[in-house]
Specification:
With 737 residues, this protein is of the alpha/beta class. Helices cover 52% and strands 11% of the residues. The protein binds nicotinamide-adenine-dinucleotide. Residues 509-606 form the 3-hydroxyacyl-CoA dehydrogenase C-terminal domain.
Length: 737
Amino acid sequence: MTYKNFTIETDADGIALVTWDMPDKSMNVFTVEVMDEIEKIVDQTVADANVKGVVFTSGKKTFSGGADLTMIKGMFSMLEEEKAKDPDGAVRKLFDAAGRMTWLWRKIETCGKPWVAAINGTCMGGAFELSLACHGRVASNAKSVKLALPEVKVGIFPGAGGTQRVARLANTQDALQMMTTGSSLTAARAKAMNLVHQVVEPDQLISAAKQMIKDGLKPVAPWDEKGFKVPGGGIWTPASAQLWPAASAILRRETAGNYPAALAILKCVYEGLQVPFDTGLRIEQRYFTQVVQTKEAFGMIRSLFVSMQELGKGARRPAGVEKTELKKVGVVGAGFMGASIAYVTAAAGIPVVLIDRDIEAASKGKSVSEGLVAGAVGKGRMSKEDGEKLLALITPSADYASLSDANLVVEAVFEDREVKKAVIEAVEAVLPEGSIFASNTSTLPITGLAKNSKRPAQFIGVHFFSPVEKMMLTEVILGKETGDKALAVALDYVAAIKKTPIVVNDTRGFYVNRCVFRYINEAYDMLAEGVPAVMIENAAKFAGMPVGPLSLNDEVAVDLSQKIMRASIADLGEASVKPEHMKLIDKMVDELDRRGRKNGKGFYEYPAKPAKKFLWPGLKALYPQQKPENVSVKTLQDRLLVTIALEAARTMEEGIVTDPREADVGSILGFGFAPYTGGTLSYIDGMGVKTFVKLCEKLAASYGDHFKPTPLLLEMAAKGETFYGRFDPYGQVEKAA
Ligand code: NAD
């Protein structure tokens, strides 16, 4: 029998080597077709008397990335369609769909012939669960091999036997830790956790896997043997009596109860370990069916899995512009940002010229890359040769002539219109016709800067976030005259450096900073009302924000806030900044010299390490303090999330952001907006625009007009619309096509 996605070669020893190699994909993923074929392979190999056992491997560099985007999307649309017709039937269908993989993997496990997974590369999610259902697992020791059950990161959990098998192989604490964080394991760590049997050299992988079968590997899982005992003795032991209360408390601390999937993992393991294996699988299947229906799962899968991939693959790239292979990128300004932009560009294998006012400054910029490379090599994350190759790609220079063959120049000089004007002119004097100029400005509108350009159609904003090496998001900003070619090149560049782009129309603060400043401003309001600072910071964390607003302001720098506020007043008038906010920040900066982390004092104190930062006690003296028991933490949480979401809605209304996927993904990657919501607009859609409008009105009555719902929101509430319905990103693509 032949298969589309698999080949089978049976050797003289009767071992069938099943190689998974999807013809039209760079990575193997599970589709309905792949599962159907695996089922046929199980039937075929069981029926074939010549086959003694099966080695299952991948023909790609990686083993598999897990489930396919289209399959997940299909599951949600099936649920929606069926629910409209028959709500109970829809859930039953979902239950069956959720169990498809579970019971297919179980079929492998109980087929009567030994199966060995030969894991040659990254093995994620359902693929790792498939391996766990094999009787033997051999992994290559190549650095690229990572094993993980990362489902929790997108709001679901390992629902194809993962919670049951991992908890029956590894000790419970490790099992819970791995699954509730979704963290990756190296092959060696997986072996230490008892999740793989052998770790071998890459070229020994298949022979070692075959050898396991030749050595008489039993086609029976440990839990199907009589007398099987869970590692550590199961739930009813003194050790478990210690572990479980702590596990629940840690989960609560880490997730604030915002992630139903993480809690479901604990439940699956706790309940599953007390019953026979098949019953455990059924428990898992039930919780999975329940979790998939939560708005958290829906929002997270949509934004963090589907939309992120779509944006990364160029969902907003203009059609009909040929892809640009970047041969050379110029970075002008080798300071804090420019130095790191040069690093990420070289890390993508693109030659970079790093220019500053003199060669010393340019070389100092390159030394940042030298430090980053030394760190990565020291930690074993990069080989010495790769590090040398990367550094060789960065040429420091003070001579603009070296930009004469660059496809793209990214400008990251001082935030000063005159300095930028001079640089634009100097670069354009040498830059080839058709090459693109991108500014990394964070506050100056692109349309205004482009007035200094002789070719505004080739002028664009590419806004990075700090630290550039770590932040996944890049805002691409369109000036009024920016053309398609500039957008296409900018997106090709962002894709090459493996960041996720959002495309934003020109406005003060673009998208991310507009939202971030709302968050910080709300904290200023709260401080002025006398809300204890610690309650503000904790409420933010309970709401799911990774960093409290005061802590974030310290990171950004309090004096930068002051600069931005003053610039707003200068450009837009007094009314653009609340006097109470200006007063607070002027006092912090001018009077108290509390500029943030950078000078060791801001809203927090920063004692010498290893001591941890703590809130500055002097904050209490700035405003008369409210009694904590009179402050509603829930209201603080609502205020912090609503003020950001409202700003996101305003950007849609103004046409600054045009695609809800970008507002959502941008908010999570840009400033960690409560990921369980799926992002700013999914937060609104998730509770319903009508409910959101009511919440805004309630907050406006007590906390100010900035909470008033906008005309668009009122209209959407009246019509019963959602952001994803009204601004349907797929409808837009169809319309454009
Ligand atoms: P920086 O002061 O650290 O670096 C600016 C660099 O530009 C300096 O090395 C300076 O010598 C160089 N420079 C100045 N004039 C020059 C000229 N005429 N020719 C060549 N080089 C020149 O500043 P930064 O924080 O890296 O910010 C740079 C840009 O990036 C600004 O537009 C800023 O708004 C933007 N930005 C900053 C951040 C951030 O977190 N710092 C984030 C996003 C964007």
